[in-house]
Amino acid sequence: MASYTSNTSEDVRKMLAAIGVESFEDLIADIPAELRIKGELGLPPALSEYEAKLLLSRMAGCNCDPAQLVSFMGGGVYDHVTPSLVDYVISRPEFYTAYTPYQPEVSQGTLASIYEYQSLICELFDMDVSNASVYDGASALGEAIHMARDLTFRKRILVADTLHPYHTQVMRTYADGLEVPVEVIPSTDGIVDVSALDNMLSDDVAAVVIAHPNFFGLLESIYEIEDKVHAAGAFLIVTVDPISLGVLAPPGSYNADIAVAEGQSLGLAQGFGGPYLGIFTANKKYVRRMPGRIIGRTVDEDGKPGFVMTLQTREQHIRREKATSNICTNQALCALASAVFLSVVGKQGIEEMANLCTQKAHYLAERIEKLPCCELAFRGHFFKEFVVRTRHSAAQVIDAMLERGFLAGIDLGRFNTNHANLLLVAVTEKRTKQEMDAFVDALAAVA
Questions:
Q1: Three-state secondary structure along 393-444?
Q2: Are residues 334 and 367 in the same domain?
Q3: Do 258 and 404 fall within a single domain?
Q4: Which helix (H) or strand (E) holds 183?
Q5: At what angle do helices 433-446 and 332-369 cross, to 10 degrees?
Q6: Which of 437, 412, 427 is closest to 244 using CA atoms?
Q7: Residue 37 belongs to some domain of the structure
Q8: Domain finish residue from 300, 327, 342
Q9: How are beta strands 235-240 and 205-211 bridged, if at all?
């Protein structure tokens, strides 16, 4: 590790002189005064190296041992089974230490692993093409709305109210700089109000963004929505739970133009929020407007097979006006983990995982609904997540359940103050009947 030596006053003077200014204030003269921080930052006193290590050790000691807790948390990040082979492969130094693979001369091994990932994702999603991945599910949606805008020459984006609120915020951030309006389609009983969508569609709508299953775990009327969206000449962008494709129709079957996902459930640990994997697929005719890069298989002049970076639409590699995105790399190690996961689990394994999630989620929902203190907030069909309305606030229930060894779910009041009594519960194939029955007993005691 390189040593760190702070700059002396003389060092600072020489650097400023090399830049051509006399003081630090001259260096930031173009920053408006109203944007500058005024006064002290309110930071605590500096610590010595020993004190800092001691503080960080105490903070780390406050973490709960995940093996001691039973998780019913979801909202895009799930406690699924991960085969041991996944961690073994991605821990090999030739993969784990590889530099971010955006150069054309990246190694054959890395290119081959990305090609396999793309092939597996296309088969799972029933879509024509997949890129090498983007940063996460939210950024995949941000890239998707720009791609739809560029292809349709329209500007308005319609986003379902039933999308993950954080994903909607990311899309708004992507759209803000180019002044692309992002409008929310209202929901009824936890799913998109199709009649409201019909009224909002017009010839200036570039895309409609739907989650299926949605943030509340419910299944949308996806075929009816597809008919209306395409009749209006707009793109259908759908974000899915990859595991759900073991029991639900894949995006290609209902003619999604762009299908994306958060790939965490495909072999990635929950890991305090990351790193995760942005899955991005599309119809083949739109391939030249896709963000990121695509790896292809070819043969050399001697007829030997090899892998190459077929498309790389970043402004660093092509004329800037033809760039589709400024995404400069992909989540190669996470994509490799998902490729290994899909190879090990296989088609039958994905179907079994999805079936177990569905059956167990419905078992738990039926048991919870018999409690006098709880009820299901929505009555629609759901995959592995559902929303429970509790007598006390969801935040209080979560705190009380944690003391009993359960991560009870997500407090939806974090996203909407009107949902303070709503608890989002997720059930994966890992949950046993004993764990679910114990969860119900604990919930009866605290809710």
A1: CHHHHHHHHHCCCEECCEEHHHCCHHHCCEEEEECCCCCCHHHHHHHHHHHH
A2: no
A3: no
A4: strand 182-185
A5: 60
A6: 427
A7: no
A8: 342
A9: parallel
SS3 of 205, please?
strand
Q: pLDDT-based confidence at 94, cuts 50/70/90?
A: confident
Reference 292, options 129, 178, 175; nearest CA is: 129
> Per-residue DSSP letters for 276-312?
--EEEEE-GGGGGG-SSEEEEEEE-TTS-EEEEEEEE
Diameter over CA atoms, the chain:
75
Closest CA to 238 of 283, 201, 276, 274: 283
> For a pLDDT cut of 90, what percent of the chain falls above it?
79
Regarding whether 321 and 377 lie in a shared domain, the answer is no
Distance, in Å, from the CA atom of 187 to the CA atom of 195, rounded to the nearest integer, reads 10
216 is a domain residue: yes
Residue 282 and residue 232 in one domain: yes
CATH of the domain at 205: 3.40.640.10
Distance, in Å, from the CA atom of 49 to the CA atom of 37, rounded to the nearest integer, reads 28
pLDDT of residue 434: 97
CB 238 within 8 A of CB 212: yes
Are 334 and 379 contained in the same domain? no
Is 22 a residue whose pLDDT tops 70? yes
pLDDT in tens, 41-86: 888 899 999 999 999 999 998 887 777 899 999 999 999 999 999 9
Question: In 3D, which of 335, 337, 318 has the Cα closest to residue 326?
Answer: 318
**Strand 258-262 versus strand 278-282 pairing type:** antiparallel
> In terms of residue numbers, what domain contains 224?
84-342
Q: What does the block give as tokens for 411?
A: 């407090």
Spatial CB neighbours of 275, under 8 Å, sequence gap ≥ 6 = 136, 268, 331, 333, 334
SS (H, E, C) 219-264: CCCHHHHHHHHHHCCCEEEEEECHHHHHCCCCHHHHCCCEEEEEHH
**Tokens coding 65:** 């041992």
With tokens 């090999």, the residue in question is 92
What does the pLDDT look like over 197-242, one tens digit per residue? 999 999 999 999 999 999 999 999 999 999 999 999 999 999 999 9
Is there a single domain that holds both residue 217 and residue 323?
Answer: yes
Residues 276-297: tens digit of each pLDDT:
999 999 999 999 899 988 999 9
User: Do both 293 and 385 map to the same domain?
Assistant: no
Residue that is written with structure tokens 């998780």 in the block: 71
